[in-house]
Structure formats: C-alpha cells, structure tokens
Amino acid sequence: MGRRRIQIKVKPNAPRSQLVEAADGSWTALLKAPPVDGKANAELIKLLAKRFGVPKSAVTIRLGQGSRQKLVEIEGIDGLD
User: Fold this and answer.
1) Start-to-end CA span in the chain (Å)
2) Which CATH number fits the domain that encloses residue 17?
3) What digits encode the pLDDT tens for the residues 61-80?
4) Apex CA 80: angle with CA 76 and CA 81, to 5°?
C-alpha cells in the first residue's frame, strides 16, 4: 500500500457533504460544515477517509489548512493518481 497526494478544492457551507471527481481528475469537496474552528477540515478528513476506506488518521492536510485549495495526503491506498 502506498501514499497518494491529491489537490482538493473545498466549498464549505454546502447543502450536503460530498466528494466530486471531475473528468479531468480534479477533486472538489462540498462540505456542510462552516470554515470555522477547523470544522470544515475535520469534515474533509472524515469524508476522504470514508471514500477511500482508510482510517481518519491516514488522511493529512499537508498544505492549505486555512485555504479552499488543499493538498491532502492519504496513506494506505494505491491507484489514486
């Protein structure tokens, strides 16, 4: 099992939470949580862990903690790129 990094555009305060992969391979995360006190980041980690079948501890936001553009690293998966 490997480690993959993906760029994700985050849109907080969405009607429902979901991950969307575009035809070009880019990712967008629609999050119900507001971008306050790390709530949106926590929801993003939970959503990615569920989507890729890994524990939350395997998902790390490497860049963009306070930004809508994030670089996320996910351990324990292959074939993401």
Assistant:
1) 14
2) 3.30.1200.10
3) 999 999 999 999 999 886 54
4) 130
Q: Is residue 53 part of a domain?
A: yes
- pLDDT the model gives residue 81: 45
- Token pair for 44: 């993003």
Strands laid side by side in the 3-11 sheet? 18-21, 27-30, 3-11, 69-75, 59-63
Instruction: Give one DSSP letter per residue of 48-68, joined into a string.
Output: HHHHHT--GGGEEEEE-TTSS
The total number of structural domains in the chain stands at: 1
Going by the DSSP 8-state scheme, the letter that residue 29 receives in this structure is E
Asked whether residue 80 is assigned to any structural domain, the reply reads: no
Structural domain of 68:
3-75
